[in-house]
Queue: 2 jobs
Job 1
Amino acid sequence: WMGQEEEYTHVKGWIKRLSAIDPATGLLNRHGWIASAIRLTKRAAKGHKQLGVVLAGVDDFKRVTEDRGYGIREEALQHLADVLENQLRPGDLLGRWLEDQFILLLLSPEGPSLKTVAERIRKAVEESPVRTSQGDVSLTICIGAASGSPQSGDLKELDGLISEADRRLAGAKKDGVNRVMV
């Protein structure tokens, strides 16, 4: 049996872990993602590695909720999380960023280029409809991606990559749907 103090510490640890999880998808939420991403950014700076940030926004997600209802919206979010998780490589970090956005941090995106990875993710979502009780729901995403080599590994450097990926996501959405801008 645990003593009261040990039990309190155990429960406190579980609460901290749960507070970093997005309940709709099971992914890291924004807060949890940032905390983990800062650690990876510091590691990249020490190892002189490059980082890539991929922001994926669901095209016309409001329509899914309006046309199919809240329950289907939740199924769609979970489906997207599963599709994106299947595209991860060891060491990649995935989280839910905003209502209809997901964020991915690639540590040392060597091998395939950032554009190749982003296109692979876009295509995986396009080719994987959400199977629901109301029939299939087709989704597409736009992606903005940016890469860089952090020097200090601080939050400011990570924020700069996220901001650049966000600008590129906005550019991709401005050009239409189902697009990638790197």
Job 2
Amino acid sequence: MATTETATRWALKGRGYEFCNCDFGCGCNFGGFPNSKDGSCRAFVGMEIESGNCGGLDLSGLKCAAIVDWPKAIHEGHGQCVFVVEPTTTEKQIEALGQIFTGKLGGMPWELLGQTFEMKGLVKTKITIEGHGPKSLFRAEGVGEGRGDTFKNPVTGEDHFANVDLPDGFIWKKGECGQGTFRAKAAGLEIGAEKSNWILYNFNWANG
């Protein structure tokens, strides 16, 4: 891995849409281990990059997603990943994002996460985002979607809002939490869950 002294400088800022098969809150965020039914970590993660660059290359305005399947805890590795970009994303932008997300350029969180999975494929398709806050919908056409919702008051059925504050979090520090239903399938990976963990967060990542 390149050190931050020698690697191309990069920075990404935007919104993250995280749907996974853990129970609410996601045990990975609190204790490092999934609290899913089978101990796996299967996630459909979307990213809306509001501003970003890698060296002199502009990455602002891009939307991308990933289907990721780890058989056990993330830090135990052996994961598989399919990366999704929009058709308008240039080859240079795809190459830069690939370098960032596989950890080759250093910088948190990808210098850690990038070592835990193997890239299985790349899909180009239209990505759309609807709604806002906990009631957001993130869709990759022909690949899958994550549909977020709030928790519900068990007595009245009204929306019940919950946020998570992680001062030491390295992926995100403040997340809006709810219940999400997702499905995604591409390049031999197929994942999905109903009314499982869903977190919407702002990210601000860089390697310098």
